[in-house]
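Field reference: sequence -> structure
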Amino acid sequence: MNDDSYPDPMEATPLDPPSNLRMSSRLASSRRVVSACLILYFLPCLGLASVSSIELLPDDEKSSEKSVRKSALGAPHDSRSELAIRRGVDFLIDQQNGVGAFSSSFPVAVTALSGMALLGGGIKYGVGREGAALERAVDYLVAPVRADERGYLKDRGETRSRMHGHTYAILFLCQVVGQLPTPQREEQLRKVIRSGVDLILSCQTVEGGWGYEPTDPLDEASLTVCCLQSLRAAKDSGFAVPAEPISRAVRYLQKCCTKDGSFRYSLTRSTGRTSFEITAASLSTLNAAGEFALEERARGMEYLRRSIESAERGRKGAFKAARNFPFYGNFYAGQVLQQSRGPVWKRWSESVWPTILELQKDVGSWESRFGDEYGTAMALLILELPLGYLPLYDR
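Structure field:
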């Protein structure tokens, strides 16, 4: 998704990321908090039609939950963000087609990203209008027609999602598998994930990366990021994932790191090409692999800091530090910076949040040359970072 025929994970995408969504007490508490705030802030004045997943806090819990919420969500998250998320989710649901896909241009990839955006907003599988849309997205991706004999997930006749779409799909399915209502449904989903993971493991290149198609011998770093995130998510969801392919992929990313801390797109094609976007994605994946002490990671973090400060000095704002693919770049940068916190996270979030809110259109969407469904899913995933619903965002 980083050459001329296919965008940088579609401006693309996530990003560790991209684990099991069985509700822990922390997530359950956070979900009650956000739901209550939606009621308190928006329902009386906006008349929102879809409220099936919203629940009120008991009176004796409200004061303590509010203080937890304030510290958990972080400074950037406020009532404007809540409303933007609600409107963006409504837009995505309105765009879903009859088979459950959210895009005709990149159906597998964008459906997976949109599904993660719904999960990231606290939506429960099968509950209400939003949960029904989430269920249809899963049904679309696990339909028998979607996979070939190797387990490669794709939409017949569509050639643009490619391996990016496959890995985003596996990432999303790993995030939702814990919400399935019956053992039979969960078993069906786990079979799709298992075959999809085996496909990923079978097509790692000699350099340790992955290419645009399962048979592609040439590596590409954004694809490698997606594969590593999917493998991490699968492992967190209870699937057996060998350590050796992950170690090889980490070494691949280390080789992609240049002296100035930026990361290359590939070791075998356009080897001199680096960017903020692929650097952020690579760092996010190193974090996902638990490689916090690597010297390459330290150089990359310094590169991100310099790039964000430079963008702000040029009055472009931190959002435009990702010059070519801002949604994609900020999706990964947000994951990296939120996990490390500190002054760079504060600077980035306080600049990026207002920009994203300003870019939302009246219909609730965000514009992207890869389709407004893609732009909306990615913008939502960025705004949802502090909510913590996606295991993808855990350190």
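Note: The chain is about 55% helix and 0% strand.
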